């Protein structure tokens, strides 16, 4: 048992973390908007936490706060992500469909180059030796677990609230929603910013988990991986992101005994999932229920 | 009764890991490098080098008669993958780990080995602060602080009229950014003028902006710190736009993978190397011979470094047996891991394909020999060689 926990503890935490990132994409998807920006905010949140955790000038602050430094990092990341999310969201969400996706990719790439040019972010090596709140990686479940539970609960309430229904109305038919008097842009920005804020906080929690933070965390590849969680899991249900992340993150690890052929099998499973489950894994459950 | 039995069986399984564990025979050594993802090109070279080392040292009798066995785990190109591979190797009861491929991955994964008290020898991490991660972390890959200035002096020896230098570096590559600062420092000490500093990304293919700026600055020496594919394209475009002067490349250009990219235009580049297959050392001659037989090409630096890392662990195992007067396989795992680390950091001299190297108390490598080579292309314009500059 001890061995099992040591071996798969980090994997379990990674699943929670990636599921949260997947959920951060689900918020804009509630309004039917395909955004890849989450990973940029994730990187931003991580940098906030990494700088607050290691910058020499902040040493007195760290000493006075102790463990409360971590919640403060989350709050700062939340504030920064929200501000940037609003600033990015208003112009970007006037775009539709593929153009919005492109704009968000452009944002992710720009952020990457900006970060590489900022001396405070440590250049290509990034920032390392970030203070750790826990010895054991599994203990990070105390960070990600409650956040995930909170997010799912929030989504559950949101989907049943007026705001949630407004979101869904835009997803089903944007023109009709606008004709009914829904402030389409404002609602889209609202959903987008919630997703950005969530990704920022997840990033702030992840920097201590990885012990290091660099520009490679916020790449286009990572953005596509997050999108894959939602698409494989099911884009029309909040459980989709969770299931997708669990499958995609754990599969390469569980297949590790297969050595070199594991990535082939991994790819095969993904292709089959796309072909035979167009509604994602969550779609499969929904069909069975109905 | 059956329920009771299964309960007992479960209890036994749970209790098993708590018992003392001996070292397995053959002695398992972990290799955690990137054999998939966009770093796989390097990871494959590392695996090839390590495999040659496994066969080579086992043919010598392994660790005083006990053979070694490599346990290879893929880290992929990211930090989480490196953590998982390290964790998997620690659970596989290896006596030491060689890896990971990238410095950034080391910052994420090495603390794990440090906590588990498993010695790590980094074969290709050159960023500042790697041996400082902990007591159990060391490396055999040297940063380019010595060789960079030498390669500049060679360029000056070829053309003493060089005055204006342009510097280019891959901004998103950890190795290149640290190497360029060494180059820039050396340019200042040599009283040369730095007329332009240009950045690029390792994923770039179009370098028009950078090349135009350099031609505009009328540089008569160009210094490049990047990786094989991007630097190859950069050199190609520099030449095609009409740059005639000398080009000095950093250690990232020390790869035959660059030849097909810039073809005949690679000719004459001076390259600073931490390893040269042409180095006249007995162990290097053996290594190059075995490697060429197995893979039909000369070993790249990553392969030689992986070989050296395995060699360091093997020699540490031998030394540990000698110092403790006990067989490694009769030790408990934790004891063996500790003994290996102690031997690694004891300052023992390793005669490796990289030349004579040793590790200091902190685990930082001390490498004596570096090389400067000139690229000579073959008439087929696709293959070439690094010829040592006299």
Number of DSSP helical runs of chain A: 13
Specify the CATH homologous superfamily of the largest domain in chain B. Answer: Response regulator
- Read across the widest sheet of chain B, the strand sequence of neighbours is 7-6-8-9-10-14-15
Q: Indicate the CATH architecture of the largest domain in chain B.
A: 3-Layer(aba) Sandwich
What fraction, in percent, of the residue positions of chain A are helical?
over 70%
Write the H/E string of chain B, N to C. Answer: HEHEHEHEEHEHEHEHEHEHHHEEEEE
Question: Might you state the CATH topology name of the largest domain in chain B?
Answer: Rossmann fold
Rg on CA atoms of chain A, Å: 19 Å
Q: Please report the total strand number of chain B as a whole number.
A: 15
Q: Main sheet of chain A, how many strands, which sense, barrel? A: 2 strands, antiparallel
* Major β-sheet strand ordering of chain A: 1-2
Q: Uncertain segments of chain B of ≥5 residues (pLDDT<50)?
A: 11-18
Structurally, how many domains make up the residues of chain B?
2
Mean pLDDT of chain A: 92
Percent of residues in beta strands of chain B: 15-25%
Percent of residues in helices of chain B comes to 40-55%
Shape of chain A: globular
**Tally the helices of chain B: what do you get?**
12
> What proportion strand of chain A?
under 5%
Please state the overall shape of chain B, judged from the principal axes of the Cα atoms.
Answer: elongated
Structure characterization notes:
- Chain A is an all-alpha fold and about 290 residues long.
- Chain A has one domain (about 1-290).
- Chain A is built from 13 helices and two strands.
- Chain A has helices at about 1-30, 40-55, 60-65, 70-90, 95-115, 140-160, 160-170, 175-180, 185-210, 220-235, 240-255, 260-275, 280-290, and strands spanning about 125-130, 210-215.
- Chain A has a two-stranded antiparallel sheet.
- In chain A, helix 2 (about 40-55) crosses helix 9 (about 185-210) and helix 6 crosses helix 7 (about 160-170).
- The longest helix of chain A is centred in the first third of the chain and has 29 residues, at about 1-30.
- Chain B has about 400 residues and is α/β, with parallel strands linked by helices.
- Chain B folds into two domains: about 20-140 and about 280-360, Response regulator (Rossmann fold, 3-Layer(aba) Sandwich); about 145-275 and about 370-390, 3-Layer(aba) Sandwich (Rossmann fold).
- Helix content of chain B is about 40%, strand content about 20%.
- Chain B contains twelve helices and 15 strands.
- In chain B, the strands form three sheets. Chain B has a seven-stranded mixed β-sheet with strand order 7-6-8-9-10-14-15, with helices on both faces. A five-stranded parallel β-sheet of chain B has the order 2-1-3-4-5, sandwiched between helices. A three-stranded antiparallel β-sheet of chain B has the order 11-12-13, with helices on one face.
- In chain B, helix 9 (about 260) links the parallel strand 9 and strand 10.
- Chain B is elongated.
- Chain B starts with a helix and ends with a strand.
- The interface between A and B is large, with 34 and 42 residues.
